[in-house]
């Protein structure tokens, strides 16, 4: 990892021998968080094993019925890593989906049957995200079926956002499904310079918004890059968390906000004037 790269991530000046001072301007309670999801796990055993060896709570999205998907899902679980189903969905380019693909021409019954079978094919899947899906994720009805299956199995959904027109995240929220949305694709250009650029952008998003979701793939260049980049997150004052952990943290934050809001409303002094919008705290 170059000094220039570390300078950019940490946001402070460094010399070759100086490390970043983690969290100087950060409150530990609101430490920025990054989720790293490795998609397309299962087709290549060596690349999959190298990805599983990455440090920290990286999350792995496994293709159903892939040659090594079940083996790698079990191995990830045994390492304490979180696993997702990477479910193939219809795309605008008519690219082949492979086994377990979801398309808009399927009946509701068949659609849900395929999705449930896909989930059964990936042991320990705690959630799911879309593989491709630029066509299907724009359609509310199929996305509603996805969320109904997710709800029945107590799963979360990550919208990979392969199209700007995706409604998957909004449908998930409407259906009461814990949901995340991808912020950064890490490695669609496979050069170290591009990976560095994308990773630095993810850190900036996390610092600005509290969290960032990064999706990469088990390419050798990505694995090599992340072996160095992940330890640098701690130095930059950014916490690496799994996708389920971020969802849990967000749910806890939402609950705390509701509790605090309710406590404030109960404790606030009576209003001097009553209005039709006030249900209580009003002198009648």
TrEMBL record:
Coiled-coil spans in chain: none
UniProt xrefs under InterPro entries: Divergent_DAC, Glyco_hydro/deAcase_b/a-brl
Source domain of life: Bacteria
Pfam families associated with the record: Polysacc_deac_2
Alphabetical list of Gene3D superfamilies matching this protein: Glycoside hydrolase/deacetylase
GO annotation, biological process: carbohydrate metabolic process
Protein name: Divergent polysaccharide deacetylase family protein
Species whose genome carries this gene: Neptunomonas japonica JAMM 1380
């Amino acid at each position: 990892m170059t000094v220039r790269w570390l300078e950019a991530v940490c946001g402070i000046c460094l010399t070759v021998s100086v490390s970043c001072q983690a969290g100087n301007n950060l409150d530990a309670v609101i430490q920025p968080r990054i989720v790293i999801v490795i998609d397309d796990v299962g087709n290549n055993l060596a690349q999959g094993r190298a990805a599983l060896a990455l440090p920290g709570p990286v999350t792995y999205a496994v293709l159903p019925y892939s040659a090594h998907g079940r083996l790698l899902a079990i191995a990830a679980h045994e390492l304490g890593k979180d696993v997702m189903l990477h479910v193939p969905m219809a795309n605008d380019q008519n690219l082949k989906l492979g086994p377990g693909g979801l398309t808009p021409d399927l009946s509701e019954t068949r659609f849900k049957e395929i999705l449930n079978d896909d989930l059964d094919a990936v042991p320990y899947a705690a959630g799911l995200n879309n593989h491709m899906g630029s066509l299907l994720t724009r359609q509310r009805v199929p996305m509603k079926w996805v969320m109904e299956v997710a709800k029945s199995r107590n799963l979360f959904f990550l919208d990979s956002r392969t199209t700007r027109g995706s409604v998957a995240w909004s449908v998930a929220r409407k259906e009461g499904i814990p949901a995340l949305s991808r912020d950064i694709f890490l490695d669609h250009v496979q050069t170290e310079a591009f990976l560095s650029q994308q990773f630095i952008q993810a850190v900036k998003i996390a610092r600005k918004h509290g969290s960032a979701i990064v999706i990469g793939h088990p390419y050798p260049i990505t694995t090599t890059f992340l072996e160095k980049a992940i330890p640098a997150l701690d130095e930059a004052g950014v916490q690496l968390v799994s996708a389920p952990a971020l969802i849990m943290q967000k749910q806890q934050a939402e609950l705390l906000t509701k509790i605090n809001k309710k406590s404030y409303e109960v404790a606030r002094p009576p209003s001097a004037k009553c209005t039709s919008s006030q249900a209580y705290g009003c002198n009648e």
